[in-house]
Design goal:
By secondary structure, this protein is mainly α. The protein contains 24 helices and seven strands.
């Protein structure tokens, strides 16, 4: 079966195409441009080939702008330039010339000789003034007043991140260079220049219905290159800080000549889906990473819960050949390779359940459709990134001006709503896995709340359990569609409108929530894997002592013929019972566990009519022998456990037990991020314990999860996941 999820597949039906979710390129300026990084990926190891001639620049020709290139420009500041090939330049000039000929011939051209929208029944020959009038009516967004007491906070909540605006400029420029919009090359070069010199307009967050394009947001870009003094732009100060200044001053500081927009040029910049497509693209890029990561976390959950590999057998996918399902199963099988914690199918009868619960067993069936949705979402967005989304548009071959509706961004809405639904499905699976992991009645012998120390005084991850429920509730709300809330606008002319930018914004919120869930779940999984490794080490250390004590009592007081069979039966009983006593402190747990051996001894000894004799030939009461044996096993079990727990706490390392993917991710968290095993109450950060010179500071659990979250958002965790797949 062909892959939809391998980065090197030639199949066009992919979630992770070559130019999508691999690393963003290193760039000499990346270190100086960290201010662009908002909710996204930083520079990483693997280079990105943008063109055949350079790995350090994105060349725009209107045909091959990828999501990954968009992210590189928007979040790292990789330079952009317009393709200077004669064919492209000639097309741009030809569309401008065609418009001029149409005007000279007295043709009626919407937005050039007429008013706009429902006011298109008006006419004018004041072409340049009409473009200014368009900007004037669309510059209606609300931005924070500098006199506001919460000015900086208002900037964050009322205006778009620079990342989004940069991305929108790239997308609009890539559309306009296609030569269908009659926008002069000098105007396009000015857009290119503000990108290169990092002059980024302040754009209001709200107010676009994304159906004659994103008119109002794009008006701030058009007004910025025109030098409107009431449009603010972010620009660099000498100390590399960013400052908001009026656009005419920002252009002057960077030696950028403002442009006066000619016929059709205001409309050409405004009447497109650039903000919708750009913001959606940035969200989809991260959603793809979270989809990859969710498969690695699922594999880690299978290990932490002693799950089975059977659920991911190729035969299951072959008889139900959904490509997403088969791809997820294949990835999880690969991730589990080498694990000593997973169970083979034949071993599952030894547990209380023959098969894993749904959060593990049906993970490929659950995640697979979301991969397919994300694949289609990507196809829709990359088509939009390389489309002409204007009206009217000009065909220089037929010399015809077409009036249509390419500004309607419903394809973007469709993409974002699939993406948001996929994120909800991913989050729901992680929530279900987390709930199972933290519940000692379901997790096959891990302590409640994944406490390393005594459970009566340590509730380690109980708060995380509650937080995950809160995250999931919010994520479920965000999964609702935006398109079902469309309102008629603008004199009834825009009676249906895509609301694509709003949908894209809410998709970013969904990305935010799933990133929180991934971070908390990864922290919990690493804790669980440590506890599982400790349990394996403990059982391996206890087994010889258990056999020794059992052999001693059976040979010293009975004449049972099959000592080994008895030892195996008693050990199996002890092992199973140990899982059910994890909520007890070690002071009582091991005695209660050992008492489970008493009926086994009694029933089997009576069944084989054993006579209890001492070496002197005197009869010994059965009860005394069984009680002594129980106490001896309990004492040994408690002593070995305490010793092993102390030793593991000094040097925790679960990697010898882990599969290929879990080992890499666990090592990244423990070594790469320096996030330690949580040892319980002793790790609470009391002020008196804080040694400012120590590398082993104690932090709140949320602070450790915050470190993982930072690595999730900047792409480091995604890189580890990518390397595992």
């Amino acid at each position: 079966m062909e892959s939809i999820h391998r980065p090197n597949s030639d199949d066009s039906f992919q979630l992770k195409l070559e130019d999508d979710t691999n690393s963003i390129p290193d760039h000499p300026a990346a270190g100086q441009r960290t201010r662009y990084i908002q909710n996204g990926c930083t520079a990483r190891k693997k280079p990105l080939e943008y063109t055949a001639e350079s790995r350090q620049i994105v060349v725009l020709n209107g045909e091959n702008l990828s999501l990954r290139s968009l992210v590189a420009v928007a979040r790292i500041g990789i330079p952009v330039r317009i393709d200077d090939g004669l064919q492209l330049v000639d097309k741009i000039h030809a569309s401008v010339d065609l418009l001029q000929r149409k005007l000279d011939a007295g043709h009626s051209i919407y937005g050039v000789t007429t008013g706009f929208g429902g006011s298109a029944d008006t006419t004018t020959d004041q072409f340049e003034d009409l473009q200014t009038a368009l900007l004037q009516m669309q510059l209606c967004g609300v931005v924070p007043e500098r006199s506001s007491l919460d000015y900086e906070a208002d900037l964050a909540t009322m205006s778009m991140p620079e990342t989004w605006v940069r991305a929108a400029i790239v997308v609009r420029l890539n559309s306009l260079v296609r030569g269908h919009s009659a926008v002069r090359l000098c105007v396009l070069k000015t857009l290119e220049e503000i990108l290169q010199k990092n002059v980024i307009p302040l754009v209001p967050l709200h107010g676009s219905i994304s159906a004659s394009g994103d008119l109002s947001p794009l008006s701030y870009i058009a007004s910025a290159i025109s030098g409107n003094p009431d449009v603010q732009c972010w620009t660099d100060l000498k100390d590399d800080r960013r400052s908001l200044v009026p656009s005419h001053k920002a252009l002057e500081r960077k030696n950028i000549k403002p442009v006066r927009l000619g016929a059709k040029e205001g409309l050409g910049i405004l009447n497109g889906t650039a903000f919708s497509a750009a913001v959606a693209g940035l969200a989809l890029f991260e959603a793809n990473q979270l989809a990859s990561l969710s498969q690695i976390l699922t594999a880690m959950a299978v290990e932490a819960l002693n799950g089975s590999t059977e659920s991911f057998d190729p035969f299951i996918g072959a008889v139900r050949p959904h490509r997403g399902q088969s791809e997820v199963a294949k990835n999880i099988r690969k991730a589990l390779r080498g694990s000593s914690l997973v169970q083979e199918a034949a071993d599952k009868d030894k547990r209380s359940l023959r098969q894993d619960r749904y959060a593990l067993r049906t993970a490929s069936q659950w995640l697979g459709p979301s991969l397919e949705d994300l694949s289609l979402a990507k196809q829709q967005l990359e088509t939009e990134l390389n489309s002409t989304t204007d009206n009217p548009i000009f065909d220089t071959q037929s010399e015809h001006a077409f009036h249509g509706g390419n500004f309607q961004a419903t394809s973007v809405t469709s993409s974002t709503e699939k993406t948001r639904h996929a994120l909800q499905m991913i989050g729901k699976l992680l929530f279900a896995q987390s709930s199972e992991l933290l519940d000692s009645k379901m997790n096959h012998g891990l302590p409640p709340n994944l406490a390393f120390d005594e459970p009566s005084l340590s509730f380690t991850l109980k708060g995380v359990d509650i937080s995950m429920a809160a995250y999931m509730a919010e994520l479920g709300f965000l999964a609702n569609t935006v398109s079902s809330h469309v309102q008629s606008a603008e004199m009834g002319n825009q009676s249906v409108n895509s609301m694509a930018l709003v949908s894209a914004r809410y998709t970013h919120k969904a990305v935010d929530i799933v990133s929180l869930m991934v971070s908390a779940h990864l922290y919990s999984l690493c804790q669980a894997l440590d506890l599982r490794a400790l349990n394996e080490i403990y059982l391996a250390a206890l087994r010889p002592k258990f056999n020794e004590i059992t052999t001693k009592y059976l040979t010293g007081t009975t004449n049972v013929p099959d000592i080994k069979g008895w030892r195996d039966l008693l050990w199996s009983t002890f092992d199973k019972k140990l899982e059910t006593t994890v909520s007890q402190d070690s002071s009582t747990r091991f005695l209660d566990t050992s008492k489970a051996l008493q009926p086994i001894l009694l029933d089997n000894l009576v069944a084989c009519s054993q006579i209890f004799e001492s070496k002197k030939g005197n009869r010994t009461p059965t009860a005394n022998m069984i009680q002594d044996y129980t106490n001896s096993i309990a004492d040994a079990a408690r002593e070995v456990y305490i010793d092993m727990r102390k030793a593991y706490g000094r040097e925790p390392d679960a990697t010898p037990f882990l599969g290929a993917a879990a080992e890499r991710m666990y090592t990244f968290v423990r070594k790469g991020l320096s996030i330690p095993l949580h040892k319980g109450l002793v790790d609470h950060p009391w002020e008196i314990d804080q040694d400012k010179t120590s590398d082993n500071k104690k932090l709140n659990i949320g602070s450790w999860i915050s470190k993982i979250h930072a690595a999730v958002r900047d792409g480091r965790v995604a890189q580890v996941a990518e390397d595992c797949l």
